[in-house]
Amino acid sequence: MTSRAVVAVAWVGLALAGCSSQEPAHPKARPSAPVMTKERQSVMTPQEALWLLKDGNARFVQGRALRRDLPAQAKATAGGQYPFAAVVSCLDSRVSPELVFDQGLGDIFSARVAGNVIDDDIIGSLEFATELAGAKLIVVVGHSACGAVKGACSPAELGHLTQLLKKIEPAVQATRFSVGGEADKPDAEFVDEVARENVRLTVRRLLEDSPILKARVDRAELKVVGAFQDLSTGRIQILD
């Protein structure tokens, strides 16, 4: 069995154990999450990285998060980090990537900003995360009832927030033409569809604005996907 197969089997076994239909008798009986190492990161494919995040979100939704010794993970990763994915998500207090994907210290890079919008600084950070630090996956995550999206629909004006919300305006306009609805009086369904469209446009922009990311995708060394979190359940759906 190849080293890649060994790693894949180990992670799949861990995920299955974490999602077992039988709840452990005691929290300490839950599987213990391993620290991401250079070897695990190097042999992981972009699709395997996506599977890991999907499995982690399933555990989060089911309330079966893996057991983690965070002080031990801090010590183990102090000398170096090998995250397998990078997540761009909203500032919202209910969408912490490490929690909703059930990941530990050293597992994922996390870029958070209201409305999960991007700029040159975030694109540069993602280029570092992938080209230099070896992450195999980028996930842009929007969520239901997003306050930033509501503000872009209104539109709201407040200091520097005004410029941030303008980055969501293309998604507002695209949604208004595709599904109808009044942007200045948005209902919940319209807001959520704008949030999804904002994610799709952000994924497209990442590949258009960064030749580095696009080249890695073309070489099958990286996958860039969009996702949407339902706040009421915590469940995350990968968008087409």
Descriptive overview:
- This protein has eleven helices and five strands.
- Helices cover 49% and strands 11% of the residues.
- The chain has a single domain (3-238), classed as Carbonic anhydrase (Beta-carbonic Anhydrase, Chain A, 3-Layer(aba) Sandwich).
- The protein is an alpha/beta fold.
- The model is unreliable at 1-10 and 12-29 (pLDDT under 50).
- It has helices at residues 3-18, 38-43, 46-62, 70-77, 97-100, 120-132, 147-153, 161-166, 169-179, 188-209, 211-218; strands at 85-89, 108-112, 137-143, 223-229, 236-238.
- The chain has a five-stranded mixed beta sheet, with helices on both faces.
- Helix 1 runs parallel beside helix 3 (46-62) and helix 9 crosses helix 10 (188-209).
- It is globular and about 50 Å long.
What features would you highlight for this structure?
240 residues; alpha/beta; Beta-carbonic Anhydrase, Chain A; 5 strands; disordered N terminus
List the helices and strands and how they pair.
Elements: H1 3-18, H2 38-43, H3 46-62, H4 70-77, E1 85-89, H5 97-100, E2 108-112, H6 120-132, E3 137-143, H7 147-153, H8 161-166, H9 169-179, H10 188-209, H11 211-218, E4 223-229, E5 236-238
Kindly summarize this structure in a few lines.
This protein has 11 helices and 5 strands. It is of the alpha/beta class and 240 residues long. The longest helix is centred in the C-terminal third of the chain and has 22 residues, at 188-209.
